[in-house]
Amino acid sequence: MVNNKEILIEVKNLKKYFQVGKHATLKAVDDVSFFIRKGETLGLVGESGCGKTTCGRTVMGMYGATGGQVLFDGVDVHKLNKKQKKDFTRRAQIIFQDPYASLNPRMTVGDIIGEGIDIHNIYTGQERTNRVYELLQLVGLNKEHGSRFPHEFSGGQRQRIGIARALAIEPEFIVCDEPISALDVSIQAQIVNLLIQLQQELGLTYLFIAHDLSMVKHISDRVGVMYLGAMVELASSHDLYEKPLHPYTQALLSAIPVPDPEVERNKARIKLEGEVPSPINPKPGCRFTPRCRYAKPICSIETPILKEIEKEHYVACHLFD
């Protein structure tokens, strides 16, 4: 999409389909394109089931791509040999949504964090121990926590352990797969602020997947909006929140609650009506058509292409043809 040496991740026409029946194909990610520059955060938002987590896992190579490319520093993640794949996992890590399910309950926290260090043979002996202690302190825990087990911690603390594990092998890129959605609201801001702080200190690049639009605005440089497997809008965080162009983005943003009761009462909210189409064997045309108040005849026939409407503001909508 963009010729820029500062780009770390470039996703080109990515597709991930699942066969769910003899003649049924679930198009979880369908022709999605975006890029992430070194040191920036790209937020990925959308309703549950829109394909954002599948997209993140396909970018990481955890799922094989049905089509398209994921270029990491110009090399396709889905065409790596065994040694290259190990090198890639050293440079790219993931923080999972559920901080309890993603931690082995039979391992101590120290061993969980040190597992990646052992696999990649980065530190041994006392150096390894010191590195684990350093990581625990980096994420706001104490070195005494290293000898405990995951069930002894709160949700927020477990997510800190997950972050320390991801940082253990000094990656450049981290996919944050809804890292705050399973946490109490009081803890969510702490984890997001920790991620921002770590990014500034370590020069990390994030793909931040979430459905909490206010948190995404807080952490992201640019934001992509997905709807039923397709990217419908992609812009800088400021432009997307101040001037959303796609009707679906406008509806999403109108649903963000405002802390002022008076403003919240009088706020115009866009209510989406109509049936949500199935991502299984989707019909041609724009998938948002049944719920769109601006739908035109062409919307049911031709799938809109994501194109640049303003500088680095991309929209897939026939309103802008």
What do these coordinates show?
With 321 residues, the chain is α/β, with parallel strands linked by helices. It contains ten helices and twelve strands. The strands form two sheets. It has an eight-stranded mixed β-sheet, with helices on both faces. A four-stranded antiparallel β-sheet has the order 2-1-4-5. Strand 1 (7-19) and strand 2 (25-37) form a beta hairpin. The longest helix has 18 residues, at 185-202. It is globular, with a radius of gyration of 21 Å.
In short:
The protein has 321 residues and is of the alpha/beta class. Helix content is 31%, strand content 23%. The strands form 2 sheets. An 8-stranded mixed sheet has the order 6-7-8-3-9-10-12-11, with helices on both faces. The chain has a 4-stranded antiparallel sheet with strand order 2-1-4-5.
E-strand count: 12
Radius of gyration: 21 Å
Q: Which structural class best describes the helix and strand composition?
A: alpha/beta
- Describe the sheet with the most strands: 8 strands, mixed
Summarize the amount of helix as a percent range: 25-40%
Span from first to last CA?
19 Å
Q: Estimate the strand proportion.
A: 15-25%
The average pLDDT score comes to 92
Please, how many helices? Answer: 10
